[in-house]
Amino acid sequence: MDAATFFIQTMNGIQYGLLLFLVASGLTLIFGIMGVINIAHGSFYMIGAYLAWSLMGWVGNFWIGLVAGVMVALVLGLLLEWLFIRFLYDRDHLQQVLVTYGLILIFSELRSMIWGDDVHSVPIPELLNGSIQITENLAYPIYRLWLSGVCIVIAVLMFLGIQHTRLGMMIRAGESDREMTKALGINIGLIYRFIFALGITLAAFSGMISAPISSVFPGMGSQVLIVSFVVVVIGGLGSIKGAMIAALSVGLIDTFGKVIHLDIFGINIFPEMSGMSIFALMALILTLRPQGLFGREH
Amino acid sequence: MTDALMHVASLHAHYGLSHVIHGVNLEIKPGETVALMGRNGMGKTTLIKCLMGLLPASSGAIRLRGQDIKSLATHSLARRGIAYVPEGRGIFQNLSVKENLLLAARAGFEGRMEWTYDRVLDVFPRLKERLAHGGQQLSGGEQQMLSIGRALLTNPDLLILDEATEGLAPLIARDIWSIIGIVKKSGISSLIVDKNFSALAKISNRSVVMVKGAVVFDDVPTKLIEQPKELKTWLGI
């Protein structure tokens, strides 16, 4: 592999990792703070991508479509929390999985009814179309750089928000002792509603901004859900920092797994078995640290 | 009855199928310090959980300033002026001492702001030295001070203290009792559970004794001291 390919693959791996972080952080927040396993999380990624495709196509502008899509996702999140999720906080994980699995089926059917089962593509916005020439024969697409930048900004805002704002304090307090938080006069139900809406909006937003570089297709939700769960498990359930490190590792391993050529005893390991690499990483981490990199011991 | 801050009438409560609170009547007047006593498992903590809205009452009434609050959510009860220092202190382990306090700080029920962050630190100088420490790095006594300071920062009318000095060294416990004295002087009503009968008798206006989920004694502490036989059966003293 030459230096140019290595550079580009590293950038791609980081960009994929950052995008995964956006999806996985919502998943890990919802689990870590509310104790809810939301397996419908990937559906919101899919919904985001379809929203981007239809809204951007409808208004003819990427940015307006993006803002409108975020609004729709937020409202959807608040509504779903009120309709279903708030009844799950005191239930066991099996019941949470059953309800959120039901949501997957409903969303899949609704998607089929509203948008059909075709594969679509979303054009890259004019402003970000093109590449940056890095060396004479090395160029990198501006859109991917922008995407990575957006993910980093959101990640930083999330860290700051949780560590340094009053709302972040309430969230951490609720995570530590739910009853005591209520007893201090904090309406934890409202905070949970906000976190759920925020988490699924992050997933939908990831789907929207990734639409121009991947395609928009029916199964994209389950694909990202599985990888996001791998990220959350490696990073440690509920840990944002863990999700970030795990997402970047998974992004890089997955990306390089597809371009490296490696034969051992005449058996082609990469890229033939690259699909397994992130699961191998997860198995390794689970063996060494069952609670994940930054998970709390139970 | 009308001048009571909190009035509990024929309250019943269940933990699953077991009937734990059997028709409790209790009244707390403004500024009054009430000692809640009884052996372990007699329903003191359960009664407190009902008052805080953390356990639903099966029947009966809980009134605050004459208003029925039985079906209100815990956070609304807290906003109406009830503060809670639970058994085990309830410190947020993942928050610093400063954050534990700031999180709670707000005006009381009628906008009262007697207890501010600075005043709490004046009353609890030990917390001042530990502001940046995490909640899990504190000693038992410091945790209890933090829990009480945090409760005061909500500017309550009623402070509920469950096991006020449990597990604390005698010297630290004495600090806590003097703080309870300061709370009393500032006009806040309190309901205090503790094992130290003499300290409670000294500070409280009334003693309430619970046996098997029911109130068996409710009068001034001096009356209770006059009944050594009952003290032995009810409290094991």
Notes on the protein architecture:
The complex is a heterodimer of chains A (298) and B (237). In chain A, 70% of the residues lie in helices and 5% in strands. With 298 residues, chain A is mainly alpha-helical. Chain A has one domain (18-123, 163-288). The longest helix of chain A has 32 residues, at 3-34. Chain A is globular and about 65 Å long. The model of chain A has no long low-confidence stretch (mean pLDDT 92). Chain B has 237 residues and is of the alpha/beta class. Chain B has one domain (6-235): Rossmann fold. Chain B has 10 helices and 10 strands. A 6-stranded mixed β-sheet of chain B has the order 6-7-8-3-9-10, sandwiched between helices. In chain B, strands 2-1-4-5 form a 4-stranded antiparallel β-sheet. In chain B, α7 (170-185) links the parallel β7 (158-161) and β8 (189-193). Chains A and B meet through α6 and α7 of A and α2 and α3 of B.
At a glance:
The complex is a heterodimer of chains A (298) and B (237). By secondary structure, chain A is mainly alpha-helical.
